[in-house]
Design a protein that fits this description.
42 strands, 63 helices
Length: 1959
Amino acid sequence: MARLADYFVVVGYDLDKRGGSEGQGHILQRFPEKDWEDNPFPQGIELFCQPNGWQLVPERERPSFFVSVLTDINSERHYCACFTFWEGLDNPQLPKAEASEVDEDEVPGLVQPAQVFAPKSLVLVSRLDHTEVFRNCLGLIYAVHVDSLSVPLETVIGNLLTCIIPVAGGSQINESPVCSLNLSVPQALACDWLLGCFQDQPCQEEREESLRTITLGAGDRQVIQTPINDSLPVSGSSVAHLFRQLGIVNVLYLFCAALTEHKILFLSSSYQRLTDACRALLAIMFPLKYSFTYVPILPGKLLEVLSTPTPFIIGVNSFFRSETQELVGSMTLDVIIADLDGGTVTIPECVHISLLPDPLLQQTQTALSMVLDPELEMADHAFPPSSTQPSTLKIQDKEIRAVFLWLFGQLFHGYRWCLHIIRIHPEPVIRFHKAAFLGQRALTEDDFLMKVLDGMAFAGFISERGPPYRPTDLFDDLIANQVERIRQEECSPHKVMNHIKELAEQLFKNENPYPAVAMHKVQRPAESPGHNDPKNLAMFPLLDDVTVQLFIDHAAAKLQTAPPVVKAELKGMVPSGPPLGDIVDRHGHVLANSARRLEVVRNCITYIFDNKMLEAKKLMPAVLRALKGRAARVCLTQELNQHVLQNRAVLDDQQFDYIVRMMNCTLQDCSHMDEHGIAAILLPLVTAFCRKLGAGITQFAYSCVQEHMVWTNMQFWEAMFYSDVQNHIRALYLEADGGEQSIASRGQQESGPAAGGQELLGALELASEQSRLWPTLSKEQQSERVQKEESTVFSQAIHYANRMSYLLLPLDTSKNRLLNRSGIGDVESVSNSYVTNSIAGSMAESYDTESGFEDAESSDVANSVVRFINRFVDKVCNESGVTNEHLKALHTMIPDIVQMHIETLDAVHRESKRLPPIQKPKLLRPILLAGEELVMDGMRVHLISDGREEATGALGGPPLLPAEGAIFLTTYRLIFKGTPNDPLVGEQVVTRSFPIASLTKEKRISVSLSMDQFIQEGLQLRSCTFQLLKIAFDEEVASDLAEVFRKHMHKLRYPQHVQGTFAFTVGQSGKTLVEHKTKDKNQSIKTLSKNLVKSAKRTIGRQYVTRKKYSPPTWENRSSLQSELDEDELSVSEELDQGSLTLSSTIRSSDRQTMSNVVERACCRDYQRLGLGTLSNSLTRSKNEPFRISTVNRMYTVCRSYPGLLIVPQSIPDSTIQRISRCYRQNRFPVVCWRNSRTKAVLLRSAGLHAKGVVGFFKSPNATSAGPSQADSTSLEQEKYMQAIISSMPSYCEPSGRNTLGGFTSTHMSTSDSSDKLRQPKIGALMKQVMGGKEDVPGTFSRGALGQRARVISLSQPRVSGKVRNPPGGKWGSIRGSGRLSAYNPEVGNRLSSKESPQPNGGPSEALFLRQQRAYLYIIGDKTQLKGGKQDSFQQWEVVPIEVCDVRQVKNSFKKLIKACVPSSATSEPSMTFHRCLEESEWMCLLHRVLQVSVLVVELLDTGSSVMVSLEDGWDVTTQVVSLVQLLSDPYYRTFDGFRLLVEKEWLSFGHRFSHRGAQTLASQSSGFTPVFLQFLDCVHQIHLQFPMEFEFSQYYLKFLAYHYVSNRFRTFLLDSDYERIELGVLYEEKGERKNPQVCKSVWDYIDRLNKKTPIFFNYMFSPEDEEVLRPYSFISNLKVWDFYTEETLSEGPSYDWELVQRGRQERLAEEVPDKPDTTTPKSQRCIVWPCYDSRSRVVPDAITKLLQDLQSLEAELGLPPEKWKDTWDKIKANQRAEAKLENRPSFNNSLLMSSNLSHQRRSQGVYLPESGVGSSINLAMDRETSTTSTPVAGRPSTSTLYSQFQSTESENRSFEGILFKKGALLKPWKPRWFVLDKTKHQLRYYETRQDKECKGVIELAEVESVIPGTPTMGAPKNIEEKAFFDLKTTKRVYNFCAQDSPNAQLWMDSIQSCLSDA
């Protein structure tokens, strides 16, 4: 029973404190005046009566009513019902105004009213929430006062304060009647009547009615319906209103925000709505109760409360909206604002509300919309039902609440299975195992549920609903009995609705037990006409407190004398509902493990305990993979449990090692929460399995499984502790009951709730039974039970202190490896902070190396563990009710436990070190090259798998990685050699290596191996040979040794000077590597370099020296060579006169040797081949030769990076050259490097111009100048130089001027007119592409490149009429497109694509005709360099501006390419796939760009124009372009000799900076690796793919060069120019005798020697056409990724050090030979090839290589001297040619390759771009007439048919062929046909003629039964002997044939017969 009202208060306006802007209220009267003992009077009521503040108003307002809620210090809520009305006052401001009239004038507009109105509030304070009853009661009091009824107010108030009603139970409970006072009773007798009330005992019916009915004695009558069960909230219709105001989604946001503890603020202009909204939010949270600040109506004066840091639900009047927003804005912006009037919910950006897990959220929203808007479903129905109105508000309210109850039923089902009952007496203490609950619900990742379970509301829920013996309510019933129904119906919304309606019905019944009874009779104030008249309203009277108090006292006295009400509490055992496990399994959330995997785990454990170690070892990798699944982990723990006898299992070393590895693997995938309880089940096992180390010393498994996060998680230990305590307490009571089950229960001990569902049910049942019996026990029995439980908890605490010290103290306490995981940080705040000062004594040290505690003593480890355990013990013992004495005893015990354990561990650690190490794989020694020496011997490491999937078995096959072995550092390479960890491939050898010089990035990493618990230090080493070594050092490798390894590696990678590289140090002893004492060798070369430098010193000018300072290299110990160089250093301070700049024209005798060497160089040989001049005396040379070889740079004085001999125009003297060179960057002036033998056009190369030179160079000749300045003269000399080059061209000398675009067919061109017509417009298109079209404005390189890919430039093919073309109109506007003046002629492209440039007057003038000419010389220049100046249209050269790729771009692109091809780790992100990364690297775009420019230059040269490539410094892109142009234009460079010559000439002699770009020394380390030469090789590879028959060398040759140009094995690619090579004495030494024949110093010599031995570099398809010019496709879609970047051979490492590979194979063969006699079983011929392990070319060689190998082995068997493979090959080709001539076949079919079908290859590209507007695909099978190849020699068919996309007749397998007459079918004549016998396809095919490609018919030889001689039949050919006929009988018919003669017929019959017999 409870009082309906505790206090009645009258609050009025305080007239005494009305100063200031706001008035105040004060309590006028309060009843009772003394506080109730059980319920003190709440303070601050006057604030809540007028939340907007106490103010006087000029007009009377209507009475208002609302309910505020106050919460007291005990979290009790008080409902304050405020009824406010206004009373008239005389205006207190008027007298003041009159008094001050003299002093100040009144403001004329403000007339003060004579009367104002003050608010007065009647307040009821109650602990019950009956809003409507309060409204009626206060309204009645007001009505009595206003209408001056005859009832005294004291009587009404006295009655009100003495009303006692039941809290719950509706009317079913038999209670004494409620006091009711009658109107007729006079006031004097009221008290007596009151006493009589308590004495009456009416009959049952009256009692029931009176229970529900109250009256205050003013003729009123009210029914109070108390809820049946007071645990369910009462909501009226507030929830329905809330959803109407805000909508479904908004309320769900608020609901989730309230549950996840966010701040919520309601705004409304109505107070009652604020209260209702807050009440509604709390109602839908049921069964959780809100436990934070809850103020439905916050007074304006208390708005500061909003700045509280804790969560809250607060309502504020909209009147304070601006103040609220300011306040909320100034504080943290984390308040969610719900505006009830506007229907909006505002969530700040910084607030993240976790929403319900997904299917639930959707189901809840659906259910809510079906409740709130039932018409929605039918909205689209053709025949909607007549009405589907939503329920009434009150019913709807309950339906909504039922939805949320249903939702909580789904969220919390099974929660009782995760309760730990840790004390039963005196009060049940219950803890919730959150991790197990989340794990079994498979919701560990769910943010919402995680926050709810961690929240205060849920903690309250567990403490309230956890006890197993208590009254139950609707929610308990839902969880216990309806979970299964919910689960089955959740997919059917209508069934869900039915369920919700049932729940709603129960909720409604609870709130309205008697809905039919509604007898309300309450007096309301009369609405009289003079209602607002102040005269008619008296002031609310002062009440007589004595009278009221008398009522209260009488009632109290009566209650005391009345018999006590005994309310029978309906307690019972709370059912738990269905266990979690089943539900989860049905949902399929459990990770499925196949039975086979579990079988593997069981077998492996059986093998281990049966000591079958070899079998176990084989299964181990499979087991470790299986343990990723939860079922397998559970299986493992179950199996291990079976091998524990009396809590102990002693193993031998190997068994122990395997068991520990499996445990580590199992724990590795457990999260720190251990949601599946795996760590919980393993915990007793790690203290059970052990091994004996020595006398009395045992090592347990726990010392090897400590490196897991779960052991440092306090919540894990708590859950484990509670679980064990529960088991023991259960056992305690089972024993007490004398049951035999205690033994069984011990077997189940230590198991988490996940495992023991049945046992847990027992514990709660037991607790329920004990709670029921508790009141019946005697005091002694009670205290005995309490004591027993307490001591059980205490003993478990000691046990856990031991367990925790086992798992937290490291084996080697000196290592301080205690917390290098996330740290056992301050668990209270669940933070991982390393240093905290909390009182609980959190870890102050983390022993993480970064915290600076590396040298901490072991005692510090002990201290931190002690502190951690102390905190744990404090927490669990306080919660479990352990006495203080016991707690103190524990605190003194813990340090001793830890210390004792440390002493035990020291002994174990000492002994474990003495153990023989676990047998690790033997370290395999690598094979070294001659001269290669080990710098550091092998260190044991693990090679970890990276992002490439092949080796890990992810793409099929056994995993080769990870592998265990050793890393070796030699003077030349880094080598890993080892064996895979997986025993199934354990006998294979894994090798990964790369040259130390190719190392591009080294990074430290930490690696955790799956089998090991330790985190190991590792290195990730990346190489530019596209290799990645990811290694983890074995624990036996000391960390300082790893550091020494790194230092040595760096020293070798970046030597002080190039002489420290392997190519120079090879063959020297290892010490010289470190000490660098270089012996003085080859004195003559030193003298030469000395002479060179001295002469350079004499001839060089000071101006040059100051601009291009040269600092000689330095290295560590300068030897005699260094001292000589020191003398020769160029002195900058020397004053030289200008005259010494001119070189003498004769060569001095001391330089003779130099010159003879220079002449031998590649350049000179090539110049002579091209006919560009010889080095005869310049006087005797014929003057008509246009070019000469100049010796101006013989001393490398003009240009340090050019070769000594250069080709320049005949007419240009050396002095001019010296002056011109200054205009160009690095003095790299234009020189000729190649001449087209047909058109005589030349290719020149130079660097870009200096800015000064540009202006002079393009200066308009008409501009006047003040005087002949130096710049002018230089510019004129430059013009002369260009003119000299143009004059050298034969086409220029022709007077007829036939070099216009229309008829550019000079005698030097051997192409036909028709092929030229096709080619001409194409150049323009090409040019536009290279320079960028209109939409391709100059921008970044990548834009341009990507733009080219997408665009199709279509040029229609105009006809030629005479000499001038009239192409379709259209302007080529890319140059002016950028909107700024350009430095180049805008008509270059027009001229090239032969488009007219219209004159202003419209007529073609002379100038137009001239402009239409093709320029004689095109200068390919950089866009950025060609600014300023104007070009004259009459000059004969033109500039083609292009955008070149920057060196930085190449560098960055290469980095990304490496990461794409060799990723460091596997990723599943779609943005990180191989093709996406490849695209982002833009490497293909760069190749496209270079190829595009090269093809353009090839076209220009082929049409007779010379080209000068003048880009950047002339040594990167320029070199790439000129090399590719020569390769494409000149077949010679596509042979071995030619390619070598090309590289030597263009790359080495012309000074590509190999050392600088390859970052070969310490000085160039910062510049980084830039693979310019690799890019060139990739371009060659692309061309090779498109034209496989044009190259003598194979793809392997290119890969070999790509590998060795960075390997530093050879000296070829070292240093930056010939000058530097001469200076170091390495340029000409290769010709001299070698001291060590094994060591090859030049890569070319090595290739030559290797090529003689094996055809590895040779391309069998080589079948060149004469003078073939190649024009490859360069679009990105035509380019392929070079397999050099992606392939690897783990069996032998890179195959580019040939002798290593050969020796490795011989060793492997030698190992295999002894085994052969033992093998009795026949050896299988099948060969398994692993793509990443084997070398495919070796294991599965191509046919020709295989045949050559077979020949060699046959020769060896026969004892013949081996013949060189080249001789054999040449013989075969010669024989085939001879046969071809005999058979009169065209000669181009003469090579072996004709047997293969090369449909996708092509010899020559037809059209570079589609010429039609449609952009159709290009047909490669072009006829001879339309093909653009050079016109072939007459009588030889075009080879383009070879590359047809269709199978040509030539490329089929023809065993025998010839003409036969065949008789047709019935009544058809004999006809001659060309027959082909095909052994391969087992067919006899026939064609119309020999040339015919389409087969007329096929006879399948499989169907042939016999071949017999035949007889002539009717219509047979005449004059043919009879024996020439034969018949072929098949299963279907008989074929009649006739050959030319009888031998021929016999030959055919024999051939067919042999085919049949072969089959």
